[in-house]
Amino acid sequence: MKILGGPASQLLASRTAKALGTEPVLCEFNRFPDGELYLRITDETKDENVTIIQSTPTDSDFVSLLQLINACNEARELNVVIPYMGYARQDKRFKNGEPISARAIACCINADRIFTINIHAKNVLGYFPCPAKNLDAAKLLGEYIASFGMENPILVAPDSGAKELVKNVSSGQGFDYDHLHKTRLSGDTVIINTKNVDVTGRHVVLVDDMISTGGTMAESIRILRDQGAVDVYLACVHPVLVRNAALRLFNAGVKDIIATDTLEKAESILSVAPLIADALKNI
Ligand code: R5P
User: Fold this and answer.
1) Residues 113 and 170 in one domain
2) Atom of ligand 1 nearest to the CA of 162
3) Rounded to the nearest 5 degrees, what angle is found at the Cα of 273, between the Cα atoms of 90 and 23?
4) Domain count, the chain
5) Residue 126, Cα to own-chain centre: how many angstroms?
6) Cα–Cα distances in Å, from 243 out to 89, 184, 215, 247, 248?
7) pLDDT at 43 over 80
């Protein structure tokens, strides 16, 4: 199988290829003078089994993914892995007149099969025109947290949307877990209700699928520290971390941030390559 990494997932594609005992296919990425994206795959994909790995945090990354799929139109079989899918949070119409952006994006992405990783809302999988499967990085996160050797930690989700994730990260390691209540006021402001999670004298790991502006986590850190947590770590699958998110989190007193390489940031210390490699081996 040939592994082809898009511009947003070069490192992850290389790690996945290595886990599969192969080398990633080389591709040139450039722009035309007017700003339009250009790419060229410098290897043969005709009649080959090809897997494209490309997250889509930006609109340009989405266009690159469409270009890669188009360039592989003579592949024998094509898999597309979208480790982090942008627009997945607009998975339904929240107000009249809005698009279902996740559906608008998904319906353009066609292949023999698609894999996502901890996609924000599972109903998005049904918007793709081909079979789509969501992979879960929870076990990897749980094992990584366990390797810290913290005594009796408690894992906490900042809102009810992350309840299933925190449960999955905890199970297998036997960690205690709980969740807080969140009300979103705007794109970067939230209120976290002071639900009484008993964290006094304990190490806390806040777990969410993604950290974007850091608003959710910054508020949660403050509350948990006020409630007596010894220290608060953050663990997420997707480190979107826009603008000054990392600074907000460290100002709020985070001990450390653990994230996967679905997005390639300084905080991406845990690779999901083994998860992708296993899924590809089991096709
Ligand atoms: C929303 O439901 C997600 O799970 C995250 O909690 C949210 O996207 C985090 O956003 P921010 O970091 O901007 O608060």
Assistant:
1) no
2) 4
3) 120
4) 2
5) 18
6) 18, 18, 11, 9, 10
7) yes
CATH for 100? 3.40.50.2020
* Phi (first) and psi of residue 178, to 5 degrees: -160, 180
Residue 119 domain flag: yes
Ligand 1 atom showing the smallest separation from residue 188 Cα: 13
Give me the catalytic one of 2, 122, 133, 182.
182
Pairing verdict, β 49-53 and 268-270: unpaired
Catalytic residue flag (residue 182): yes
With a Cβ cut-off of 6 Å, ligand 1 is lined by: 159, 161-162, 188, 190, 208-216
* pLDDT tens-digit readout, 46-60: 999 999 999 999 999
For residue 194, what pLDDT is reported?
Answer: 61
Predicted confidence (pLDDT) at residue 266 exceeds the cutoff of 90: yes
Full domain range(s) for residue 256: 138-261
Residue 266 lies in a domain: no
> pLDDT at position 195, please?
64
Task: At 76, list the tokens.
Answer: 């024998």
Q: Quick check: 271 pLDDT over 90?
A: yes
Rounded distance from Cα 245 to ligand 1 centre (Å): 11
Q: pLDDT by residue (tens digit) across 98-146? A: 999 999 999 999 999 999 999 999 999 999 999 999 999 999 999 999 9
Residues 61, 161 share a domain: no
Task: Write the pLDDT tens digit of every residue in 76-87.
Answer: 999 999 999 999
Residue bearing tokens 């990260």: 169
